Amino acid sequence: MFNGINEILFFSGFLLFIFLMLALDLGVLNKKSHAPSFREALTWTSVWVSISLVFYLGLMFFGHKLHDITDLAGIQAKIDQFHHPIRIGSLTFEEARQVYNQNLSLEYITGYIIEYSLSVDNIFVIIMIFESFNIKQKYYHRILFWGILGAIVMRFIFIFVASALIQRFEWVMYIFGGMLLIVGIKMGYEFFTKKDEDKIDPHHHPLVKIISRFFAVSTVDKGHHFWVKENGKLFITPLFIVLLLVEFMDVIFAIDSVPAVFSITRDPFIVFFSNIFAILGLRSLFFLVNNLMGKFHYLKLGLAFLLSYVGFKMVIQTMMDLHINTKLSLGIIVGILAFFVIISLMFPEKKKEMAD
Predict the structure, then answer these.
(1) How many Cβ atoms from other residues are within 10 Å of residue 217's Cβ?
(2) Helix (H) or strand (E) holding 216
(3) Residue range 101-115: mean pLDDT, rounded
(4) Of 279, 268, 259, 266, which is closest to residue 18 (Cα–Cα)?
(5) What is the C-alpha to C-alpha distance for residues 280 and 25, in angstroms, rounded to an integer?
(6) Bridge partners of residue 216, in order along the sequence
(7) Is residue 356 in a domain?
(8) Beta carbons of 199 and 128 less than 8 angstroms apart
(9) What is the full DSSP assignment across 92-134?
(10) How many Å apart are CA 197 and CA 1, to the nearest integer?
(11) Is 236 helix (H, G, I), strand (E, B) or coil?
(12) Is residue 351 part of a domain?
């Protein structure tokens, strides 16, 4: 997985920064359970997006240091290993390094935009879960914090296992691409048929049934606690069940979103960085979306097109050994999202009339 001390140091530094930010978030800035205001959510969203853009700039100038590249042979080796869509030809090392870093940073920001936009659909499902369990808004942040911490660990495992499979078995790309095409078509079908499959039944969900078999579940409101002791017996609270459901849904969504980023880059570090920054911005984005639900009702159709595009791109690239320019992919993806956001604003969703 790691090919040198530089990769280990770079990755360790990244994880240390992430955990320090999370500790600051929960331990200092959000000690008390509360429902963040729209302004607070907007501020934190801006902070996380800004940090993600700073990381993009860092890769643009120092991306080669990630894999400890010191010469032209090192650049060519990474181009061949991860199928970067660039050619260095007769460039000098300085010129080739600049081209390589620019491509690496573009792959990162494209993957970040894909992951961040797909997380909106994830947010809608999380809102459904919270509403189904009647969770108080002041506890949303606590659940999302621990949910994201678990998601970081699971994404790490998923991404690097998937990368190892892709490098060993090229045909895995066909599976990922086909899967994304199917999910995109299914999402588009659900949009046009108004079929709502995201409703969560808190009493009959398979995960809830499994948990109830092995643990005693407290039905009394225990505030922000995930488990409590009553008469010497350990009980888990509905809050903990919701946390497990959020983790479970993240695994389901990762099956779609992680392969989508692999359609842009096969470098597992870039896939991981783009995923984690998108996940870290998920909490603040959640509270924004929760306040703006209904404003961008065509976005789900846009996500269907986005998934279909990256799935088709993945299959075609593998089948024909093509290297589609990263700038072109970024332009197409941003264009798809911008188009459906604009038409959502131009044609607001009509409110359902109340029955007499």
Answers:
(1) 13
(2) strand 216-217
(3) 94
(4) 279
(5) 11
(6) 235
(7) no
(8) yes
(9) -HHHHHHHHHHHHHHHHHHHHHHHHHHHHHHHHHHHHHHHHTT
(10) 38
(11) strand
(12) no
Give the angle subtended at the CA of 175 by the CAs of 170 and 177, to the nearest 5°: 95
Contact status, residue 248 vs residue 120, Cβ threshold 8 Å: no
The C-alpha atoms of residue 280 and residue 261 are separated, in whole angstroms, by 17
What is the tens place of the pLDDT at every residue in 131-187? Answer: 777 888 888 878 888 888 888 888 888 898 888 888 888 888 889 888 888 988 988
Q: Are 48 and 280 in contact (CB under 8 A)?
A: yes
Q: Is the pLDDT of residue 33 over 70?
A: no
Structure tokens given for 169: 């078995």
The model's pTM is: 0.84
Per 3-state DSSP, the chain is made up of helix, strand and coil in percentages (nearest 5) of 75, 5, 25
| pLDDT tens digits along 279-306 | 888 877 877 776 666 677 788 888 889 8
The answer to whether 242 and 131 are in contact (CB under 8 A) is: no
Q: Which two tokens stand for residue 278?
A: 């998108």
Which two tokens mark 39?
């302004």
Domain count for the chain: 1
83 part of a folded domain: yes
Q: DSSP characters for 10-33?
A: HHHHHHHHHHHHHHHIIIIIT-S-
The crossing angle, in degrees rounded to 10, of helices 299-320 and 93-132 is 140
Residue 199 domain-assigned? Answer: yes
Can you tell me the distance from the alpha carbon of 160 to that of 149, in angstroms, rounded to the nearest whole number?
A: 17
Distance linking the first and last C-alpha atoms of the chain: 63
Note the helical H segments in 133-263.
140-168, 172-193, 206-214, 238-262
Could you list the residue range(s) of the whole structural domain that residue 126 is in?
5-346
